Amino acid sequence: MARVLITGCGYVGTALGERLAAEGHIVWGLQRHPEVLPPSIRPLVADLTAPETLQGLPPGLHFVFFTAAPNGFEDGEYQAIYVDGLRHLLEALQEQGQQPRRVFFTSSTAVYAQSEGDWVDEGSPTEPVHFSGIRMLEAEHLLLHGPLPATVLRLGGVYGPGRERLIERVRQGNAVCAEGPPMYTNRIHRDDCAGALQHLMMLSKPDQLYIGVDHEPAGESVVMHWLAAELGLAPPRVVKSPESVPRRPRGNKRCRNAKLVGSGYEFRYPSFRKGYAALLAGADS
Question: Is 87 part of any domain?
Fold first, then answer.
């Protein structure tokens, strides 16, 4: 039985915490408003941006997970949570004499700037040009060059129950596809995010870096056409100008999950088809 702290215990962290608690581990969820956490996760009121609130962490922690997310898509928000917030947490652990076996950090495939459909893995160059990837990479460096054993899981786009925006865009007829070569996307279902983190925690000596995506990078238009067919709707409109397709700045790459799979993790939802089919079935039930 391990003593586990999940900081920024939100969408992914809560799913992870419930899994670990069900196995008998003692789990604390650090949030500014932890009253929303399920009963199996012990609430811990704190704010990663306010280091004075981190002075009373549970003693004797075996594992710490950093699964926080910023309040907005701005450089300042990313800096405050991923860089400053992580630094505050690491300093608090050190000041309190904590020696967890490992600290896990959920990063992002935004650290890769490849934009021509390239295949990338853990050894590929990381030269982000957008603030989201830059701040994530800065946080990774802070953690991996720190005093505690650490592992980073670079996640693709996380979807799952409650995160069904793409389904709704297709359902409402607001989804459009850009004409031309595929714009590859990399996804992972929330349950596989939690499952992968749980799996890595159980390894005796996990590596420092893994990519967390499913088996099938797919062109964005392929995903939307598949959803439209499953919903019995007409295919999304095709527009000639990519600028007409709303999206956050990102690369166009295909991420490999071979290292995570090679470590022994088995995906519950190995492709977007499996994951979205489960969401559609849940919506219909």
Answer: yes
Q: What is the pLDDT of residues 24-67, one digit of tens each?
A: 999 999 999 988 999 999 999 999 999 999 999 999 999 999 99
In terms of DSSP bridges, do strands 42-45 and 63-66 run parallel, antiparallel, or are they unpaired? unpaired
> What is the predicted pLDDT for the residue at 120?
97
Task: Identify whether the C-beta of residue 34 lies closer than 8 Å to the C-beta of residue 42.
Answer: no
User: Any idea which residue has 């003693």 for tokens?
Assistant: 59
157 - beta bridge partners?
Answer: 187
Asked if residue 167 belongs to a domain, the reply is no
User: Which CATH number fits the domain that encloses residue 114?
Assistant: 3.40.50.720
- Please give the Cα distance from 185 to 63 (Å, whole number): 31
Q: How far apart are CA 178 and CA 185, in angstroms?
A: 14
Which of the 8 DSSP states describes residue 57? P
Q: What is the mean pLDDT of residues 188-214?
A: 98
Q: At which residue do the structure tokens 């992002």 appear? A: 108
Q: Which of 236, 218, 232 is nearest to 274 (CA)?
A: 218
The whole domain housing 34 covers 3-162+186-216+255-268
Write down the pLDDT at residue 181: 86
Residue 47: exposure state from Cβ atoms within 10 A (0-12, 13-18, ≥19)? middle
- Pick from 82, 111, 85: which is nearest to 211 by CA? 111
Please check whether residue 178 lies inside any domain of the structure: no
The answer to whether the beta carbons of residues 221 and 161 sit under 8 Å apart is no
Split into its structural domains, the chain has a count of 1
* pLDDT (0 to 100) of residue 153: 98
Could you read off the pLDDT of 221-280 as tens digits, one per residue?
999 999 999 999 999 998 876 554 555 545 699 999 999 999 999 999 999 999 999 999
